[in-house]
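Entry:
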Amino acid sequence: MHLKPFVLTAFMALATNGFAQTITTTNPLLVHSNAPIQFDNVNANVIQNAVSSVIAASDARVKAIIAVPKNGQTVSNTLMAADELQYNISDLSIKLGLISSTYADDKTRNAANDQNEVLSLYATNLYLNEGLYKALKQYAGSADAKQLHPNQEKFLRETILTFEKNGMKLDAKGRKELEAINKKLIDLGTQFDKNIAESKDSIEFSADDLKGIPANTIAPWKRANGKYMVYVNGPNYTALVYNSPNEATRRSMYQHYNNRAYPQNIKVLDSLFYYRNVLALKLGFKSFAEYALVDKMAATPANVWKFENDLVAKLTPHVTEQLNELKQLKKQLNPELSDTFNYWDLLYYQKQLLDTKYQLNTDEVKQYFEMNNTIKGMFSVYEKLFNIGIKEVTNVPKWYSKVKTYEMFKDGKKIGSFYLDLYPRPNKYTHFACFPINQYRIADGKEVLPVSALICNFPEGNANEPSLLNHSDVITMFHEFGHLVHSMLGRSDIAAQGPFNVKGDFTEAPSQFLENWCWEYESLKMLARNYKTGAQLPESLFNKMKKAQNVSSAIFSIRQVYLGTLDLTYEDKYENNKDQSIVQVDKNLFTSMMQMPYPEGSHFICSFGHLNGYAANYYGYLWSKVFAQDMFSVFQKNGVMDTKTGVKYRKEILEKASTIEEMDMLRNFLGREPNSEAFLKSLGIQ
């Protein structure tokens, strides 16, 4: 049941020297208020109207900023006007991102994709607007700008850098050529993501093929002819490669899952890498990675290569040791099979190792992580840790019937709203992510509170069994909810300095940091209860989990290094590798780093979504983890559920959003310079 549709009016005004641009709208995508967004009223026409309206209003805002005379520029009519310009564009863009990733209706979803391309190109080309750049540059040299608050000065400095990084130093002809390149890149990125989301595949198996898979799992797959039709998605992939003793079954699922969006995304990626390199060279950079890292903590490709190569040197001996243990187990359990250890063997034999050497039955562990109870318990952990409150709300419009809605509170005051969209379905985003929907903004004393959503693909329950999570799923849930809490708590009087605007190689730290609570009994017992009996997770079972925490950890860590190196190779070594196919580049890195044969016939890169959204930034997962583990070390000292420490973290890290430099946040919380000791210890390689 939905609330009845109602009409709100949004006044998006930009007051400058004698000028005001006001839009009055009933378009649900343009209403900036704290009322629930009318997702049930969104269609292709609404989307097209929203984009054309924002572009028209933005054109007027740009003209107004440029028109202010030199001696009349102020914080209000120049700096905050530039922030409002960005806010209205990005706030609509993130809504379109959600719609294109979640809506079932093809026409609406395609319109969101198409119109977000239009809006993205418009936003990108703003950084080629010479008049706008000169207005901001002129203001930066004014007496008024000398009086800016530190976060205002940071915003102005970073905005000017973005202009200069993105082509403002080119002449008019060069900027025009850059517009064409930007359009190609936006079109290609959209197509890449769309191909992944719309990939559809299924595999027919016999009952013998599926021996070893829990009966409750395979029951929904059975067809009238006695065969089993398995849809290729994340939960089904996990179910088969973890549980099937049949190597052919595991291999089949692996190959199908890692051929999503193949072959179409091979051509798309080829073009993406080519045009990114063209863009970088045109802007005066040696590579796209050099261009992308200018405004990151790492700063240069050389720093990232050193980071990755140091990890390779530290991890490789441990990878060899851990793989040998799994190979020996395979030979022991299946002497009739080849000695070759393939990637589709990894999760299955790791599970067998846990069962045998560590007496840890992962199927037993799952009984303690039923979805609803896990979410409720996770909320309790976050509430105690950060002194916040969370409550479920109903009768809120949403984009799909199974989506759940919530509100978050601090000191008794509502600070934001969020949605949980937890299970896979056709045409939906296929991974796990936190999607911002509304950005926080305060103007004229009025707040627009943040709204976000977790878009996930956890295994859904059925008539025989509820949704039960692997412990790794629980870690993923904590990670993504860490992003969401960051999005709820971050505050700035400049909308562009929101939580998701921290540097790209720090953005994962606040979420990775919270994964640690999945490995502490004091917190885990708050959410782990047997779904049949209600019994709390026994400490004896937890101790087995803890003892096995670093099983195969070097293998999984080297995979992160491999992915970061693959991304960086494509974006920093394009000229060196352009005569090789992008698949061959992947093969070379996989075999050298993973110490396993490349899975011939698979094309993982076609569905490696980070090659679009995280271009030259995948290294950031491990780079961020250095800081995440360092911050967690404070809780290890003070108590993992110590609210005083949690509130300090909330205030010094989460609430600061991107108003100050990341290293300053870390120093303020840690009371010292950050270091990598806790990170290396967490990898088990110190």
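The first strand starts at residue 14 and ends at 16.
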